[in-house]
Amino acid sequence: MTTEIHSLIGAYALDALDDLERAAFDRHLRECATCRAEADELHEAANHLADGAWSVPPPRLRDNVLAAIAQTPQLAPAAAPRPRVRARSPHRLRWVAAAAVVLAAVGAGTIVHTIEDQRVRREQALAAILTAPDVIWHEESLASGGRVRVATSERRDAGVIMLDADQAPTAGKVYQLWTIRSGVPSSAGALDEGQSVSTRIVDDLSTADAVGVTVETAPESKTPTAPLDAQVNLA
Fold this sequence. Notes:
By secondary structure, this protein is of the alpha+beta class. The chain has helices spanning 3-6, 9-13, 19-31, 33-50, 61-70, 90-130; strands at residues 136-141, 146-153, 158-165, 173-181, 184-190, 197-203, 210-217, 230-233. It has a four-stranded antiparallel β-sheet with strand order 1-2-3-6, with helices on one face. Strands 5-4-7-8 form a four-stranded antiparallel β-sheet, with no helix packed on it. The longest helix is centred in the middle third of the chain and has 41 residues, at 90-130. The termini are far apart. The model is unreliable at 52-56 (pLDDT under 50).
């Protein structure tokens, strides 16, 4: 048996081989009892580690698995085993390398799942405000071109600021949003450089008197720069 065919055991257990490689390794498994046992053990461990972390394997999983396996040292058999010392076989080292790849992929899958969950929650909150029975809409044009729309709902105790500028500010400048209560402005967040469109959910927006838009030096300003690019009166 060649070293190359043995080295595919981790990728085989993770279902990361192409059709030709899998067919070749299936033939090898029929002849190698050691690899069959290792493959069964690794497959069980991989399923346990990855359970619930993703619904579809990440596209680069196969490349990562093969890269990790290729970098794992292949130890030659010891000339004379020392008493009370158990040497690690190349099979066991490949098992460890592949398991490490699974753990890394599980972490990546968990992050992706968290981001996706946050996105879904935000879309649900946005829909709840915009479809609320008491939603009130206000709109003003931007002096620099474009418009800003504001939706508020007392029932949802929140609102949405939707900025749609014709173009982003010049280099080093950003759009910044403000809520104004009793003449006192409070930042509702700044857009990134080069960004001209934004939708922001703002808690307790229905109690504000107005929403302002300014152009500030990146990344943001503590106080709004006059004159405002737009002011949407809510009262």
